[in-house]
Amino acid sequence: MGATGCLMRQCKMCVTVFKWLPVILITAILSWSYYAYVIQLCIFRIENVAKQILYLFLFHISFVMFFWSYWQTIFTKPGEIPRNFYLNYETIERLEKETSDQSQQAILEQAARSLPILCRNYNGTVRYCEKCRLIKPDRAHHCSVCSQCVLKMDHHCPWVNNCVAFGNYKFFVLFLGYAIVYCCFVAATTCQYFILYWTSKHESVRDSAGDMTTEGFEKLHILFLFFLSIMFAISLVSLFCYHCYLVTLNRTTLESFRPPVFRMGPDKRGFYLGRYSNFREVFGDNKRLWFLPIFSSLGNGVEFPTRRETMRAAAGGDGGENGNCNLPPPSQSLQGQPAHDYNSMGETNMAISAKQGPQPLSMGDGLSFPQKTEDGDTAGLLSTRRKSTTDDDSEGDDQELDFREVQVISHNGSVPRDHVAIGFTGKM
Ligand SMILES: [Zn+2]
Ligand SMILES: [Zn+2]
């Protein structure tokens, strides 16, 4: 038993070291680049003092910003789930005693009733993590590497040995941006020396005894600096652009592959609030903090404003109550709307005519109502999911998921809030 425990500890230690290897590698490259640029290039090679000072000044700004944002991405907690999302002991016991899915779902539904949750599984059930024994907040996911659920999870990044999520997403985007700035600056300022060394054939890097000369070392450092900075800049540009694109859509990497599912179905642009508001969700309201790796994202990581809420606010706020909500179409940009009006419960109880403008659609005779069966719903949602994940993210992809909420009007003209049927009219 003792030997097994010892072996387990050693295995865990090996895994931990292995997980930190990419971070150690990046830190080593960064440290070497600092030495090569400051000592070998600026101090040994550049003779003009003014040029030396200018290069050193700009280099240190980009180096500090790069290292600061990298550090923050690694060591900031990505987003712990609040305690009230964890099931209590009695509920876990009841859940484990139940054998049927329906009974378990009923227990989870009851537990989720007091929580601010909009998102669901594809079959309409409550999102529950069996490993953490908690009801997942909207946009939270379980990370198998970190063995925990994380708020607004984007992805797990081995290069920072951390989840990129609500707590450090801004730092991650800044880290990519400053890494590119750093690489481009180093590449641009070493370029002329690289060309000089490359074209000069008379200078040998070795002396008569075959040992590397000081000048030879200097050359090698500067050649490597140039090559590595170009290589890293090229590989980071596409990733940075992709994350800038996701920020403007208020979408995580996971959501770009699997859209969030609301009560009315999956909606790839469910959290889209307009490009500027989307940007503010990550970078905050304080412009002075936008480009500093200091936390300034809006919200608490648990509740997120949705496109429908914002549209409802734009339409006057009480449209759902009188059953005649005059909403703009979902593709309309909502710039300037408050992006952090966190009011998430009761989302689907509101009667909304989302796609058809002011005129509500009335279906049925008011006596019999369409029922949503689990199998049919799941099949429909899955086909929608296949459609939405294969489509590109063009500007007009509002149209991809065209869910029409169908109002069922009772005979006296009022809208019974519990009788909002859901119809799928998308281009499936
Ligand atoms: Zn979990
Ligand atoms: Zn993780």
UniProtKB/TrEMBL annotation:
Residues of the Palmitoyltransferase DHHC domain: 126-257
Region (Disordered): 313-399
Assigned protein family: Belongs to the DHHC palmitoyltransferase family.
Name the record gives this protein: Palmitoyltransferase
A Pfam family assignment: DHHC
Residue intervals passing through the bilayer: 20-41, 53-71, 171-199, 220-240
UniProt key word NAD: no
Primary site of residence: membrane
Enzyme Commission no: 2.3.1.225
Taxonomic path: Eukaryota, Metazoa, Ecdysozoa, Arthropoda, Chelicerata
Name of the encoding gene: LOC100900186
Chemical reaction(s) catalysed: L-cysteinyl-[protein] + hexadecanoyl-CoA = S-hexadecanoyl-L-cysteinyl-[protein] + CoA
A GO CC term assigned to this protein in UniProt: membrane
InterPro entries assigned: Palmitoyltrfase_DHHC, PFA4/ZDH16/20/ERF2-like
Location in the cell: Membrane
Alphabetic keyword roster: Acyltransferase, Membrane, Transferase, Transmembrane, Transmembrane helix
Topology of this chain in the membrane: Multi-pass membrane protein
